[in-house]
Amino acid sequence: MKAINKEIVGKPRVSVTACQLDLIHKGKEIEVKADAAIKNNTSNPIDTYYFSLNPGLEIQKVISNGKELRYTRNIHIISIEPLKPLLPNGIDSLYIHYSGKIKVLTPIEKQAGQDYYQ
Asked: What range defines the domain where residue 88 resides?
């Protein structure tokens, strides 16, 4: 995961200014509907929104302004493509629906130096 994190270091990222979570427990799994307000606090347009999500959770959909957005995933990093770049000081909103079972590294895996989920 450290190598994946390094891939986005230095890239402009949005700031989450508010987030409301609708969380439903389903036994050992959860289902979450997240409404997030985001802002571009950088001096550059942002053409990809980066977020981190536990690898055990699967995204069902991402929506902004009533339109479904494309996204890609690399283990825990979610890269969301807005319909148009978010200009400096611009704001946007996202609805992200995801569910699954949280994956956790065991203490033995952490001691062994693993930095990824299996």
From this structure: 2-111
